[in-house]
Task: inverse folding
């Protein structure tokens, strides 16, 4: 597991979410994703109230949270590199940190797209657990004022929804 500075509560929350998802993903490795989704549909994690995800969606969500933690650390280093108290070596790192930030934003977007595609696939099968999880996560981000989670929606989900909306609009207009 990555070493996360737990003096920052927002990263502690993200780390706890990641741990819950990893535990859920490893609970029943012998079950198929469909059977696991059926098993967890009516239950949620009792400790946090987090809706359960299927195995595939949990793996994507874990990857998304890992990227988010890296993104937040990058943002912290970038702010430090442009602050008035920054050393000369810190200022030299700013360009590299901006490039890494852009790369992380792209990766977060791609993982959010994967999760949304999985949500559509499961929704077609009658399982809305991913949509419930995303709604729960958004409510949690707002209620806890977790800027890291709010960044996930701003950098990942919002552009992913816009991209999917554009694709759907083009397909409808093409008919």
Result:
């Amino acid at each position: 597991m990555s070493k996360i500075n737990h003096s920052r509560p927002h990263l502690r929350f993200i780390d706890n979410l990641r741990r819950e998802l990893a535990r859920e993903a490893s609970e029943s490795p012998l079950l198929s994703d469909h059977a696991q989704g059926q098993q967890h549909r009516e239950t949620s994690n009792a400790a946090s109230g987090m809706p359960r995800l299927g195995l595939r969606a949990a793996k994507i969500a874990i990857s998304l949270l890992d990227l988010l933690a890296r993104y937040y650390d990058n943002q912290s280093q970038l702010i430090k590199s442009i602050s008035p108290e920054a050393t000369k070596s810190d200022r030299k790192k700013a360009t590299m940190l901006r490039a890494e930030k852009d790369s992380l934003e792209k990766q977060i977007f791609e993982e959010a797209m994967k999760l949304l595609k999985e949500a559509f696939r499961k929704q077609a099968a009658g399982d809305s657990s991913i949509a419930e999880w995303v709604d729960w996560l958004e409510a949690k981000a707002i209620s806890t004022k977790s800027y890291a989670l709010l960044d996930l929606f701003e950098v990942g989900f919002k552009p992913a929804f816009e991209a999917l909306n554009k694709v759907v609009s083009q397909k409808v207009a093409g008919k």
Observations:
- Confidence is low (pLDDT under 50) at residues 28-33, 36-42.
